[in-house]
Amino acid sequence: MGEQAPVRKWSVISLSAMALSMLAASVQAVNLVSNGSFEQSSFTPANSSQFTTQVTDWDNADPFGRVYLFFPNTATTSGAVYTASNPFYTLVLNQVGEPSCDGGNFVGIDSDPTFQTPITQMIGGLQAGQKYTLSFCWALSQERNVLGPTTDQWQVTLGSETQSTAVVANPSQGFTGWFAESFTYTPAVGGNQLLSFLAVGSPAGIPPFALLDGVRLEKVLAEPGSYVLVAVALLGLLLAHKRRSERA
Fold this sequence. Notes:
By secondary structure, the protein is α+β, with helices and mostly antiparallel strands. The chain has a domain at 49-219: Jelly Rolls (Sandwich). It has helices spanning 4-27, 224-247, and strands at 49-50, 67-70, 80-82, 89-91, 106-110, 119-126, 132-142, 150-158, 161-164, 168-170, 179-185, 191-202, 208-219. The strands form three sheets. Strands 1-2-5-13-7-11 form a six-stranded antiparallel beta sheet, with no helix packed on it. Strands 6, 8, 9, 10 and 12 form a five-stranded antiparallel beta sheet that branches. Strands 3-4 form a two-stranded antiparallel sheet. Helix 1 packs antiparallel against helix 2 (224-247).
């Protein structure tokens, strides 16, 4: 009998630890996207620029694609340099509500059909049949000194599955404000899958500009309530075991 109390004590500790770890797992979400806030790059701070591979973990495969990294407070002032032209061209947006919903740097893409090009990142460790939530914030602006209303949307692909935001209209020289977006993906194949953001705008020649920030991809976990139910069940088993031990 003298050895049963320590056994019961360790049972309580083990079951409690199990319940707490499950509850903690339910509220901890790991972002599978690297540098989703676009804060890491090889550019000198405050020198906004067109990029291909200079933004860490992101790629723009078209060297002539008008894909830009904007540092805070530069989009409507000093602008960003388009390095694919000779001489370089500096692009300045008319309006941008800053900060973005994620703060800091953000990406801007000319979504004119002539210049459309995606930015991509390879995502590793995906599980087939597992649901994932992709979230990001976005907005629309327009190049300074260009007049005319525009429309824009993001087409977002993970592996073979593509989802799109609504098509949003932006008045001439306007700014839409930042939107929060969320999609759910269920990969049919596990392992590595390409994540792609393509801005699709109109009309041609009046550059619609789509802005992007705060990209996150997280596994959809069980609701915390389900773990609470498991913890209650474990506690019930422990109490039942304790009563049997006391009767013995």
